[in-house]
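It is worth pausing here to work through a concrete case rather than discussing structure prediction in the abstract. The textbook approach is simple: state the sequence, then state the predicted structure, then interpret. We follow exactly that order.
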Amino acid sequence: MVDGEDEAARAFEDLRAEVSLLRRAVERLAAERAEPSDTPDYAETLGVMAQNISAAAQRIEAVVSSPALALTPHEFGRQIIEVGTAGGARIAVPSPLPGR
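Step two, the predicted structure:
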């Protein structure tokens, strides 16, 4: 039975070593969690980013709801010609400068 006792003693010693290793690892983890974090606080930066995104979304909404975006290229061109023609009738064309 001596061999069986030696094997059992060796197995318990191996188990004791494993448990000791696990205990040291858990203690190290607990100590690391207790230390102050070096991770920066991004709350302020994220807040600024959220405000900028919100402002950009409002500007995009204004552009998307613009009546000009509903115009077809043909209609847009027609309106330009119409305004140009109407405006040209009211503009007095200066006479050319003498000597040119």
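Step three, interpretation. The radius of gyration is 41 Å. Residues 71 and 77 are 9 Å apart (CA to CA).
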